[in-house]
């Protein structure tokens, strides 16, 4: 998302791309750079340095990347230690970055649970109350700096077990995380979808427009690629669930037919072997 936004040229950014800051806690700078390179080259990040010949080919692709200078100008990466920095620390870092001459249009903080909880006015605040304080502080920061602030967050155990669509009630921790958000996009991936490098994305909250579900989104962790070029679009979750129910019903019918055909074939073969009917 970050590298794509930094090179996305349109009238709203005077065809210059968007200024993007990506903050992360669990990856290091090398990991993040490899992910950006994998998206550009479409070579999985684990294979970028597989052989000397491939390294030369990859270097050539990167050197000839048409948006190289645009990305260099627009894209900033910053690592912080997990559970050490609060939302207010993020505010101070944004101020320093802006004073240095880089004003981001979009910031991604990856991810919410890696932030240290913001303390409230009481020492008896529960972990959920501190999560709520943190999210409200991030909401204030987005307004203060006029930035699009994306904050991935983890779901609860039900979001893993029931993975057709991750709805707002499956968000982990404080409910304020979903209450404060202006837009929420959930990502669900079954085991089969993971093998096929696809996902189901659902726009489950949108203060400024309608909702929707996108099935068969290309979601390739290896090449850091998300693509909606060949998706099936639904206007709402109900339409998606109805279509999925019909698909499951048809699958059950097809399996039942296959079993019946197999049983008939077995009986037929047995009768031939017992000379009960001519070939």
Keywords:
four-stranded parallel beta sheet, 9 strands, single chain, alpha/beta, globular, 10 helices, five-stranded antiparallel beta sheet, 279 residues
What spatial form do the alpha-carbon principal axes imply? globular
Approximately how much helix is present in the residues? Answer: 40-55%
What string, H for helix and E for strand, traces the elements in order?
A: HEHHHEHEHEHHEHEEEEH
What fraction of the residues are assigned to beta strands by DSSP? 15-25%
Number of helices: 10
- Low-confidence segments: none
**Biggest sheet, in brief?**
5 strands, antiparallel
Please give the radius of gyration in angstroms. 25 Å
The chain-level structural class is: alpha/beta
Mean pLDDT: 89
Number of strands: 9
End-to-end gap: 63 Å
Brief rundown of the structure:
This protein has 279 residues and is of the alpha/beta class. The protein has helices at residues 2-6, 29-41, 52-63, 68-74, 87-99, 127-145, 157-161, 176-180, 191-196, 237-273, and strands spanning 20-24, 75-79, 106-110, 148-150, 183-188, 198-206, 212-220, 225-227, 232-234.
């Amino acid at each position: 998302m970050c590298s794509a936004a930094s090179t996305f040229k349109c009238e709203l950014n005077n065809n210059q791309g968007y200024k993007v800051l990506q903050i992360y806690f669990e990856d290091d700078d090398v990991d993040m750079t490899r992910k950006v390179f994998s998206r550009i080259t479409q070579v999985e990040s684990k294979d970028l340095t597989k052989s000397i010949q491939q390294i030369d080919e990859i270097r050539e692709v990167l050197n000839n990347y048409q948006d190289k200078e645009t990305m260099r100008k627009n894209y900033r990466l910053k690592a912080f230690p997990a559970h050490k920095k609060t939302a207010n620390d993020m505010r101070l870092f944004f101020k320093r970055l802006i004073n240095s001459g880089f004003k981001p249009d979009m910031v991604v903080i990856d991810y919410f649970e890696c932030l240290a909880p913001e303390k409230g006015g009481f020492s008896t605040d529960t972990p959920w109350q501190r999560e709520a304080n943190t999210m409200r502080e991030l909401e204030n920061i987005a307004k203060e700096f006029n930035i699009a602030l994306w904050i991935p967050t983890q779901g609860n155990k039900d979001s893993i077990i029931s993975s057709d669509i991750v709805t707002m009630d499956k968000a982990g921790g404080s409910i304020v995380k979903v209450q404060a958000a202006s837009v929420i996009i959930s990502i669900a991936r079954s085991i089969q979808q993971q093998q096929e490098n696809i996902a189901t994305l659902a726009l489950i909250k949108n203060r400024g427009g309608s909702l929707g579900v996108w099935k068969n989104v290309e979601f390739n962790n290896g090449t850091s690629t998300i693509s909606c070029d060949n998706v099936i679009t639904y206007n709402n979750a109900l339409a998606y669930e109805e279509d999925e129910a019909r698909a499951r019903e048809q699958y059950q019918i097809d399996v039942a037919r296959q079993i019946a055909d197999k049983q008939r074939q077995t009986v037929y073969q047995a009768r031939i072997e017992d000379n009960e009917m001519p070939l």
